[in-house]
Amino acid sequence: MNAVLTIKKTGSARMESIHTRYIGGGTRRTFVVGLILTMLFALERTADARSSAPPPPHILFICKAGTVKSAVAREIFRRRAAERGVSVIAFSRGITPEEHVSPALRQQLIADGIDSTRDGLQKLEQKDLEAADIVVVFDPLPRTLVAPRALDWSALPSMNDTYPLARTDLDRRIDALLDAIAQGRAR
Length: 187
Fold this sequence. Notes:
Blueprint: E1 2-9, E2 16-23, H1 28-52, E3 58-63, H2 69-84, E4 89-94, H3 103-111, H4 126-131, E5 134-137, E6 151-152, H5 159-182
Parallel strand pairs: 3-4, 3-5, 5-6
Antiparallel strand pairs: 1-2
Helix pairs in contact: 2-5
């Protein structure tokens, strides 16, 4: 019994399907062995494709309290990245963490489907800055913490006072950052 393994490219070079065909008669055992070999080959090709892809960038959003601008930006950024199919890891931290969301803002966030409390409140540490590929700051960092390169988004209006205006500005900034990441210009 002869086994023929063919790889058929369909569409782009990334989309490949694997076909196993047997010529002549054969035993069930031979068929199973051929099938297992075909599956192992496919798994190896999938693992190779995954390992050659660069890891997703880690994006760190930082604000004073860690509950408003950075947390809201993190959630919107995650949502927009998922909608675009851009692989990222986004997280946020507070310089001096405290609950700072006004009741009015909380209602607006709920209406927009944003849960700024999803990841919990965490204090910024140097290791967070070192783990990030891109750092976005809404407030100046303490002198004891160093971020070699950071995007300064401190001009964003107050979310507690002017959420619609701040949200429009934040959406624009997030879209520009996602464009840069998708085009490989950010890191």
